[in-house]
Amino acid sequence: MRKRAFSGIQPTGNLHIGNYLGAIRQWVERQAEFDNIFCVVDLHAITVPQDPAELHEATRQVAALYVACGIDPRQSVVCVQSHISAHAELAWILNCVAPMGWLGRMTQFKEKSAKQRETVSAGLFVYPALMAADILLYHTDVVPVGEDQRQHVELTRDLAIRFNQLFGEVFTVPEALIRETGARIMSLAEPTKKMSKSEPAGSIALLDPPDTIRRKIARAKTDPLTTIEFDESRPGIYNLLTIYELLSGQDRPTIEARFQGKGYAEFKRELADLVVEALRPMQERYAEIRRDPASIEAVLRDSADRIRPTAERTLSEVKVRMGLG
Ligand code: AQP
User: Fold this and answer.
1) Which of 39, 66, 191, 236 is within CB 3.0–4.6 Å of 186 for a Cys-Cys bond?
2) Quick check: CB of 187 below 6 Å from ligand 1?
3) Tens-place pLDDT, residues 233-273
4) What are the two backbone dihedrals, phi and then psi, of residue 269, each rounded to the nearest 5 degrees?
5) Structural domain harbouring 117
6) 204 CB under 6 A from ligand 1?
7) Is 185 close to ligand 1, i.e. is its CB under 6 Å away?
8) From CA 159, how far away is CA 135, in angstroms rounded?
9) Taking the model in full, what pTM does it have?
10) With pLDDT > 90 as the criterion, what percentage of the chain qualifies?
11) Is the pLDDT of residue 118 over 80?
12) Is the dihedral of CA 277, 279, 282, 284 positive or negative?
């Protein structure tokens, strides 16, 4: 029996190379090893205001990008969270099991709510309970994510353990799968902050055209020093070098030797060429997939039909254990 892997991305904007290098690439690389569910988590997206037509379109875009990046829908489930109502129902139950104190400690909530203050939705606060529901419904063993999601996976583990102690063993306690390199790709504009969909100026989107990629990399913030070395105390150049390392497959000494005595401009030009070439096949596959919208709709519908029974079984067991119904 292969282990079950579950992960998802919110359709909240253009996916970027941080989402790819931190999450999607490891989904693809380890696709054969696990029994996978890759979800487009649209219920998470509405924790902040969304335009309905744009959300609907972004959901298809993210699903098509999963496939364009190398997820094979015959091998892995590619689904939409809101197509399976058990996610929302289990989330409500977990909201009632999760102490406020646990949710209040989540750094992502603190950061995102600080920007919105009074208008922040209650949904944003309980977001981690919905994420726990996503994962726990399918008896997930591993959750391949970027570093920023480590705390939410920890909370999922705590909630699973708490529920199992209170009501009996129902949930599998999952583990986060976080890469050593690339788990936190930083913004090109502000390299002390993570690259994020909501800050497009600092992100390289997977669908950015070559000119835009070259311009963004040319403008990427570095520092007044001139050496090109993997030095974590220099976040701008360290981040660019990490992207180079991940996309070239070369090791750090080889990369440092290659750029010894060369300037930032030359390094950035080579990096831009590398990123453009790495994204080209994915962008071509994406364009092909989008020419046939019916096929992606069919994938999403069939996938939901395939996994809904598992989700409903887990939910009914939870309800029986809790005396609901
Ligand atoms: N900068 C990053 N480096 C590495 N991994 C990252 N991930 C996100 N940003 C980076 C990983 O991508 C997956 C999907 O993320 P998400 O859409 O669920 O939410 P997010 O982490 O909030 O993503 P963004 O890009 O920052 O979007 P917004 O601006 O909407 O908040 C996760 O596995 C995440 O770790």
Assistant:
1) 191
2) no
3) 999 999 999 999 999 999 999 999 999 999 999 999 999 99
4) -65, -45
5) 4-183+293-322
6) no
7) yes
8) 11
9) 0.96
10) 96
11) no
12) negative
Looking up residue 218, the CATH number of its domain turns out to be: 1.10.240.10
Is the C-beta atom of 179 inside 6 A of ligand 1? no
Nearest atom within ligand 1 for CA of residue 23: 33
Number of domains in the chain: 2
Choose which residue among 6, 7, 9 to substitute to test ligand 1 binding: the one with the highest number of ligand atoms within 8 A of its C-beta: 9
The reply to whether 131 and 49 lie within a common domain is yes
Binning pLDDT at 50, 70 and 90, where does residue 184 land?
Answer: very high
The CA-based angle 125-155-122, given to 5 degrees, is: 10
What digits encode the pLDDT tens for the residues 24-73? 999 999 999 999 999 999 999 999 999 999 999 999 999 999 999 999 99
State how far the alpha carbon of 107 is from the alpha carbons of 101, 110, 113, in Å.
12, 5, 10
Question: Is pLDDT of 115 > 80?
Answer: no
Q: Per the residue annotation, which of 3, 110, 115, 197 is the catalytic one?
A: 197
Residue 11 CB less than 6 A away from ligand 1:
no
Catalytic site includes residue 193:
no
Cα 37-310-128 angle, rounded to 5 deg: 60
Is 221 part of the annotated catalytic residue set?
A: no
C-alpha to C-alpha distance for 42 and 38, rounded to whole angstroms: 12
Catalytic status, residue 115? no
Select which of 3, 112, 221, 319 is catalytic. 112
For residue 112, what pLDDT band results from cuts at 50, 70 and 90?
confident
Q: Are residues 261 and 234 in the same domain?
A: yes
Residue 271 falls inside a structural domain: yes
Q: Which residue's alpha carbon is at the smallest distance from atom 18 of ligand 1?
A: 9
What is the Å distance from ligand 1's center to 19 Cα? 5
Compute the mean pLDDT over every residue in the chain, rounded to the nearest whole number: 97
Residue 116, pLDDT above cutoff 80: no
Residue owning the nearest CA to atom 10 of ligand 1:
18
Neighbours of 96 (CB within 10 A): 8
Q: Does ligand 1 lie within 6 Å of residue 149's CB atom?
A: yes
Is residue 22 within 8 Å of 183, Cβ to Cβ? yes
CATH assignment of the domain containing 176: 3.40.50.620
